[in-house]
Write a structure and sequence with these properties.
The chain is α+β, with helices and mostly antiparallel strands. It has a domain at 13-118. It contains five helices and four strands; from the N terminus they run H-E-E-H-H-H-H-E-E. The chain has helices spanning 2-5, 37-55, 60-63, 68-84, 92-108, and strands at residues 22-26, 29-36, 111-113, 116-118. It has a two-stranded antiparallel sheet. The longest helix has 19 residues, at 37-55. The chain is extended. Pfam families: TcpE. This is Conjugal transfer protein.
């Protein structure tokens, strides 16, 4: 009875072991390196959104001038960025929302602390006042450097 109740508590971190599914071959053709399945799905979704945008009558004019090679490379590049660059265990939507909000705050020059906007530091200047300052160059040790070429006679 005592042997059945003996349990050893195992402590572990949930996000420590994370296994990503990877593709090693497609239709029997081996790839050079394993490609994450998440990246393939990102590329398909971004590519589908791009195709829909391209064939939309009014919005398609904005990207119809871009060469086809760049239009093909764009979803692949974005998918690679989403899978290879760490997004701090967040979904891509949350990551890009955070990135967009960061650049918006930087553009508006606003700083928030605990959800409240704080004022920027201001510098005050006084005019028509004399100040006395000592240059630090006077107290620096002078370095003597010999220039030219060494000649032997």
């Amino acid at each position: 009875m005592e042997e059945q109740n003996r349990k050893i508590p195992l402590y572990f971190i949930n996000n420590f072991l994370k296994f990503d599914r990877k593709l090693y071959q497609i239709f029997g053709m081996k790839l050079g390196r394993p490609v994450p399945l998440k990246g393939v799905l990102y590329a398909m979704v971004i590519g589908l959104a791009e195709v829909i945008w391209y064939f939309t009558p009014v919005l398609g004019r904005f990207i119809s001038w871009i060469p086809v090679g760049i239009l093909i490379a764009l979803p692949i590049t974005l998918a690679w960025l989403l899978t290879d660059i760490g997004t701090e265990n967040r979904s891509p939507v949350a990551f890009f929302r955070s990135l967009f909000q960061y650049h918006l705050r930087k553009f508006n020059r606003v700083t928030y602390v605990r959800g409240k906007e704080i004022e920027k530091e201001t510098t005050f200047q006084f005019y028509s006042h004399f100040t006395l300052g000592i240059k630090e160059d006077n107290f620096r040790r002078k370095k003597h450097v010999y220039k030219g070429y060494v000649t032997y006679r």
